[in-house]
Write a structure and sequence with these properties.
- The structure is a homodimer of 229-residue chains.
- Chain A is built from 4 helices and 10 strands; from the N terminus they run ββββαβββαβααββ.
- With 229 residues, the first copy, chain A, is an alpha+beta fold.
- Chain A folds into 2 domains: 143 residues, Nucleoside Triphosphate Pyrophosphohydrolase; 62 residues, Arc Repressor Mutant, subunit A (Orthogonal Bundle), CATH 1.10.10.
- The first copy, chain A, is elongated.
- The model of chain A has no long low-confidence stretch (mean pLDDT 92).
- Chain A binds a DNA duplex (27 and 27 nucleotides) through α4.
DNA sequence: TCAAAAGTGTTGCCGATACACCCATGG
DNA sequence: CCATGGGTGTATCGGCAACACTTTTGA
């Protein structure tokens, strides 16, 4: 049996919401990094790197995210640890990856920070990625779409205050289907996470929409005993 | 800043169902290993060990499980990767643990295989464990109790065929509450996972109960794109 | 014939959906 | 005053919990 080693790395699936290039409707985007060495040279891969010895797992994911995109994660959660024997640069070196997923607000900077080695793609229209990264993104998408249904992570895509139409737009973009405005409103209001403000969004050719904020005393996602870690 | 290294280990939270020592009702048990060296010397800890270089993560968990308990896992799923800086034997060496959780059938052997260093405990009445293992078990329990509600993992605690009362007993033990037999029956039947056999369990002072089997074409748990990995 | 568990039927409640309808604003 | 989305009201449907009731066995 050949000698083999195991390396430990942290990668991150980073989601942002921006209009789709052709349909102009909101869609999920993911930044990828082009591999500059074999194996899979030239292919796109998830941003990531080795875990620094004096750094926590989530901290490593957050640092990597900032270095790749210049953005601050609004939400960060561990996705899965991948450690199959088929992973890694050579057959003799296998890599165990702790993968996180994150939600960011694209804001202004974004485009500038992405160099030639970093490029954003529509998450549902990715090319074939390096290693098992295609499967990883697929799994991250599945988790995100699941979680939208029962938590308030979508707050991470919005500013401090927002209208119900804006919030519904985020949900529709993530779930890729339209939602009934009346029922969506009741669902959100009955969740207890929303707090109505006295401010309104004006400017449309219609009745102004009330602005809401999220109750900050409730966590974005309930991960049981791990909540807040 | 001090020099520091990172070790990689795999641990497993192993659940079995056996009667509670005082109430005699079914309860969840967990095997623990006594630590024979500092830090936390003498404390109980999750079974685990370093990842072999030529071994997958789940394979490592399965091997460790067999070595500690002599049992074969009926169900095995990754729980979480823990990598805080406070973990590990010394301040200079931090350990990243990929933790799995497993369901086993105690069967006959069980008690014999457990040596002086391995002891089974009622999962809800554990002593203070080494490192962050108390939190890890708590999280595993939370995941198990969640998953019982929407998947068929409880199959892992039963034999090939079983009565609805036996299945309900497992659910009641895990969830720690009684369930209405009539509604439980309908729930299970409408799930589509159950297949009725023509055999019956006789011997009680009552009407014989039909034996069921699980539809093997359906996976125990739906983990989206990762199902079956 | 009786106790006990298997198994079936029925009812009422609650949440989600569909959709009709009024409100307030900009043009 | 009209088009547009904001916001409310309401009927219906389906799933679930509660619980009454019938069935079949062992003793």
């Amino acid at each position: 049996m050949a000698e083999s080693r195991t390396a430990l790395a942290v990668s991150t699936v980073i989601f942002a919401l921006r209009p789709h290039p052709t349909t102009r409707r909101l869609a999920l985007w993911v930044p990828l990094v082009r591999r500059i060495r074999a194996p899979h040279q030239g292919r796109w891969a998830l941003p990531g790197g080795p875990l620094a010895p004096d750094e926590g797992l989530a901290a490593s994911a957050g640092r990597n995210l900032r270095e790749t995109t210049g953005l601050t994660p609004q939400y960060l959660e561990q996705l899965y640890a991948f450690g199959g024997l088929d992973r890694g640069p050579t057959a003799a070196e296998r890599t165990v990856s702790i993968v996180y997923w994150a939600l960011v607000r694209p804001e202004e900077a974004e485009a500038g920070a992405a160099g030639v080695n970093v490029q954003w793609f529509v998450a549902d229209e990715l090319p074939e990625l390096a290693f098992d990264h295609s499967l990883i993104v697929e799994y991250a998408l599945w988790r995100l779409r699941n979680k939208v249904e029962y938590s308030r992570i979508t707050a991470a895509f919005l500013g401090e205050t927002f209208t119900l139409a804006e919030l519904r737009g985020v949900h529709e973009a993530v779930l890729q289907r339209t939602l009934d405005p009346a029922n969506f409103r009741r669902q959100m209001e009955s969740s207890g996470h929303l707090v109505a403000t006295e401010a309104f969004r004006t400017g449309g050719r219609h009745r102004p929409a009330r602005l809401f904020r999220y109750d900050t005393s409730v966590h974005l996602a309930d991960n049981g005993p791990l909540t807040g870690r």
